[in-house]
Structure formats: C-alpha cells, structure tokens
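User: Good morning. I'm curious how calcium ion would be positioned relative to this chain. Could you predict the structure with it bound?
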Amino acid sequence: MMSHRLTLPARISRLLLIGIAALLPVAVTTPIVYWQESTRLRQQATRQTALAETTLDLILDYASQAADTVAPLTNQPCTQIVQALRKQVTIVPFIRSLTLERGGILYCSSLFGVYHRQISSPVKSRPETELHLKSGNELTPGRPLIIYRKQSGPTAIYIAIDGLHLQFSLDMASDYNPVYMRVGPLWIGPDHAVHPTPSPPFDLLTIQRTSSRYPYTLVSGFNRRDLYHQMAISYKLVFLSMAALGLALAVWLRWQLSRPASPAADLQRALDNWEFETFLQPVVRTDGLGWQGAEALMRWRHPRDGLINPDLFIPYSEDCGMIVPMTRKMMHQLARTLEWSQLPPQFHLGINITAAHLRDDALLVDCQQFLTHFPPGKLNLVLELTEREVLEPTFEVRERLARLRELGVKIVIDDFGTGHSNLAYLQQLPLDGIKMDKSFTASIGADTPSSHIVDSVTELAHKLKLEIAAEGVESEAQRVYLTRLNVGWLQGYLFARPMPLREFLQCPELAAARAAASVNRLPRDD
Ligand code: C2E
Ligand code: CA
Ligand code: CA
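Assistant: Good morning! Here's the predicted structure, ligand included:
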C-alpha cells in the first residue's frame, strides 16, 4: 500500500547527500596527497639542482686548473707555449681548446697555434672569471659549448668546454623535471640548444640555485600538470581504495536513508514539518439539497512513502499521544481556508475526534477558537466520536459534551453499530446524531442479519430524535433504500471520494448546493 515515491526536492537532496558521501574519501585524500607529492617534488628538485651543481663545478674545476697551469706561461710568445697549451687540452678532462687573448685580440690557440683575430675592443675592468654560453663555433657550429675565461695579468685565457659535457650533467640531474643552466643572458635545457632568457617558467614551483664558485645558475621546478600526473601514478592505489570506500559509503548511506526511521520519530517529524493534508468528502442531504456537509479526513504525504491513508497512522498517533496536536492543527488550517470560502449556509463540517481528545480540557477551547472564524449560521461543527473506542458516559464526559453543545457544536457517534452502544448509553450521552457504519450500508440488499440492523438502527435513531447519517454509500440501490428509511445524510463513493480541500471547494456540486439552499432557505437546525 505504501508506494516508495519521494518528492522531487527530497529526492534531489538525498541524491546530493549520497553523491557527497561517494566523493568524500577522495575529496579528503586529494589535498593530503597534493601536499605530500608537492613536498616530495620540491625536495627532489632541490636535490637535482644540487647534484647538477656538483658535477658542473667539477667540470669547471678542470678548466680552472688548466687555466692556472697556463697562466704563468702567458708572458712568453705563442710559439713557445703552444705545445704547453696542446698538452693541457690533451691531458685535462672535458676541455676542448685553449686560447689566449690580449687587448681584444686572440693571438694564440691550442688549435691554430699563432693567429690573429680581433674579438672585441678591450674592456677596462672585467671580473677575474667569466663564463659564456655559445651555441657553436667555426669548427662545430651546431654544438653548444661553454667558454671559461680567466684573466691573468694583461692576458685572458679562454677555455672551451664541449656543451655535451654540460648536457650530460644536466640530463643526469634531470629526473622527473628538467634542470636548466643559465649563464649570463642565455640558458641551455633538455633540448640541447642554447636559448635567450627568460627560461621557460614552471607554473607551480621554481627552484633556483646559483653556484657559489662559478657565475651560473641552475633552474628547476615543476608544473601543475606534472604534479597531477605524478599523483595519479604514485597514489593510484590510494585513490582506487578511496573511491571504493566512497562507493561503499554511498551504498551504506543509501541503505540508511531508505530504511524507515522509528515510527514515532517519523511521526514526530511529520508533525513538526506538517506533512499532513486534509481531504474532504461530501456528506449529502437526502432531501435533494445535495452537498450540505463534508467530513474532514486526514492524509499523510510522507516524503518517502507518498500519500498514506489514516488507518495506517491514526491509531499509532493516538498511542503516541500526538493525535490531539494533529487534530488541533488540522482544525486551525481548515478554519483558515474555509472562513474565506463560499459554502452553503449551515454547512456541516465533520471532524473525527478520539476519546483522548474528549478527555482533554483543551477540546472546548479548540472548538471555540475554530468557531470564531465563522459568522453565525455559516458553519456547523460536527464532532464524530468513534464507537470503536469505549467512551464511558461519566459525569465529566457528559459535562464536557453538554458544554460543547452549548457552543453550538454537534456531537455524533461514528461507526455506529460496531461497538458497545445500547439504548441506555445513547440516552445517557447528550448527542445530536449517529453515523451508521459502512458495513451496514454494504449489507443493504443482502439477506443477512446485519441488513435488518439498518432498519432497526434507523428506527432507534428516529425514536431518540437523533439525526442519522449513513456512510459507505456506493450504489444507487443503497441510496434509494436509505432515503426511503428517512436517513437524513449520506456519504460514500457514489457521490464522491475524499479529495483535497481546494479541489472540494471548486466542485460544481458545492456551488449547486449553495444555490439550492438559498432557494429552499434551509430550515435552521436548532
Ligand atoms: P471514518 O471516520 O469511518 O471515515 C470514513 C472512511 O470511509 C474514510 O476512510 C473514507 O474514505 C471511507 N469511505 C468513504 N466513502 C466510502 C465508500 O463509499 N466506500 C468505502 N469502502 N469507504 C468509504 P479514510 O479516509 O481512510 O479514514 C479512515 C478512518 O481514519 C476514518 O474512518 C477515521 O476513523 C480515521 N480518521 C481519518 N481522519 C482522521 C482525523 O483527522 N482524526 C481522527 N481521529 N481520525 C481520523
Ligand atoms: Ca468519521
Ligand atoms: Ca466509519
């Protein structure tokens, strides 16, 4: 009977919650992994540049050593020292050529011997040691080389180191991320070519390390994309586990959410959020005036289970002691809607009241407040007291009923015939009418013992001058039969099923009943 239908907002927020649970483990893990991996990469880049510095300094140390060996000979003519230059080139690792310069003129070379080539106009003060990065020279045009220059008195010693040595050092140091070497305005990187500065940027972290001994700088770092790539590779298992955990969490949460809460908690929430709706079912007069009344029947629009019929929650809310506040709120809402509605005069509005409510002093106040919304003659409040519950006709109960009647409230015994009523009971209680249970209406036409009860109940009611209503009228035969017995009011699917309040107020039968009442000028009930 309970359909598993959720309202759209409830469904969306449930899905959202489950989605958050599914993503939570990965979402929590990601920043931690990000921090860990970026720390690791930073340390690695620092290590890489330190390693590159060590090997590059070592290579340059050889050049410096060769320069120191040649320096004392530079006051001699080239022809005498060219052999010594060639010897250095042969025995010292990494160096390719050795050239001497004086006054801007290259005059002695390990390669060409004596020669004369103007390279620059003499500069007054230059640092003692210089490094120059070149993309090539006449002999090896496409091959980068680094020139180590050392000033020794008026002579400068130029030592060429093959770029390949630099390259190997940089390549060796470059692990995940490349290491660049910057010399003056130029740099050399993993593509083995010389470029002008600035060196390509790293978008996440850049580490610079300037050699303490030679004028060059090493640059390394990493890009965001590399970091994500590393995270995906190194933490693949972690992420997979977290995704599995998220999935498990989502499944668990889904199960938790679809599990019914404890019925009492469910009902309390329903009361707090007012998930109840009032339906009205017309109560029809048999004298041809039509819909002159209605019964208020509660429905629970459960966020998960959809519309629930009262049989499933009213008994429970009685047990939990919630029926009184529920009825009170329903009456309040009904009053606020009906006070602005056009109803036939003296409209009978039936409200189901439980024994618990009747024992409550507040019932009188609730009814009083309800009636203040209506001008005299507009609406008759009818309290239907079910006969299924034992209602002791104590002095207190009679007192209370009497005071309610003084307010103009009508008292009717509901489900009449199913319980404990007897003639004495009916006489002891101050009543206005009885409502015959639908099981008797259903028996009309069948030749069963209960079919005769309809006749005797009606007769009894007439004798006691009580109004009589019949519920559960589903067929035309039942209507005719009950009308012939002078049953004043009928209610059942034959006329209409219970419907939402707004829908009821728009029914043309209601307007017709209003018109009929104004033509006939309904006799007053009192
Ligand atoms: P009830 O007071 O006897 O209300 C009449 C019930 O008969 C309603 O069931 C109504 O829908 C149903 N009914 C009407 N015409 C026909 C018909 O032609 N054939 C058949 N088979 N049934 C018909 P509903 O709405 O499911 O209510 C069930 C019971 O729940 C009510 O019985 C009443 O005892 C209780 N109830 C409903 N609303 C409230 C409320 O606000 N307060 C209290 N205390 N009880 C309520
Ligand atoms: Ca009823
Ligand atoms: Ca009934």
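The pocket of C2E (ligand 1) is lined by residues 281, 297-298, 309-311, 314, 323, 327, 330, 352, 354, 384, 386, 414-415, 438, 471-474, 491-493, 498 (CB under 6 Å). DSSP finds 17 helices and 21 strands in the chain.
Let me know if you'd like a different ligand tried.
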